[in-house]
Every structure is written in structure tokens, then in C-alpha cells.
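Service request form, structural biology core

Requester: graduate student, group of Dr. S.
Request type: structure prediction, single chain
Budget code: on file
Notes: please return the result as C-alpha cells.

Sequence provided:
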Amino acid sequence: MRDHDPFERRPTRGERGPRVFAPGDLRLLMLSMLAEQPGHGYDLIRQIENLFDGSYTPSPGVIYPTLSYLEEAELITGHVQGSKRLYAITEAGRHALAEQAVALDGVRMRIEVSKRALRGHDRPAEIHEAVGNLRHALHMHSGRWSPEEIERVRKLLNDTAKAIASGPDEAVTENTP
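Core staff response, request fulfilled:
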């Protein structure tokens, strides 16, 4: 049996992708979408997917419980339309949305940040794994930062960033132990 490399990333069963929304963000976003026009759960899934330029698609297991929550809170109503349920905002929902205008701006700003972070997942798996290894190493090191160690790690990270940015023809000329 070969020794396990502690930096080798092993996916876990049921592993999720990166968290896209902070608590309450999705409710507020969906409420704002329904304020623009009534829609079905599937419509909201597609609208959110479009907001993320296709890099994130919320699951029905997230969307429909959120719709149920908003309906129970009487912020939206749902009416059966054929085999689907059409949701629309209520006056109470419009009032709640108006009170949360600043928070909604924050949600939209976090969506833009999340889009950029999710684009990073277009990196090759090997690079993504190496970045995860770096995060893990930094996390494992926390709490033991002497001034000398801070400078050593800062230099390593900055030199590595410069070497990556300059391309394959340029090598880091100064090695630090």
C-alpha cells in the first residue's frame, strides 16, 4: 500500500461546489425576480443560471423550498397553472423588497464576485488541486506565524505569482528555503 500524500485532494462523497449565496441572498434575489415578472420555479432556475453566465445553476432542491418559504411568509403567492405553479409577488413582498434595497444591491455585488470565482473553476484540475493544496498548507500553518516566517511565506507566494504571470520562459531566479 502506497503512502498517502497529505496534499493529494480526495473528493468526498456528496461533495458540493463552492457556496454561491450567503444566507438569505437567494430569497431576496428570487423575490426581486418575481417583482419584475411572475414565473415558475424552472423560470427562476434559468434566470439565475443566466445571471451567472451559465457557470452556476441552482438545483430544484434549493429553489422550490425557497419558494415555499416565501409563500408561507406571504411574500409571494403561487397558483396552479397547468402542471406547474406560477409565482407572483404580493404587496407584502413588494414592501419587504423595498425595505431590503441596500441588501439586494449587496446580493448583486456578491453575484458578480461569485461569477469571477466560479470562472476560476475553468482552470485545469491539476492547477485547481494545487491551489487547494496551498490553501490547506496555509490553513494548517495558522497560529504559528513569526515575523521571519511571515516574510518567508510572503516572498515565496509573491515570487510564485510573478513566475506564473511572466510565463513559462521566465523562471524564479532566487530560491528561498
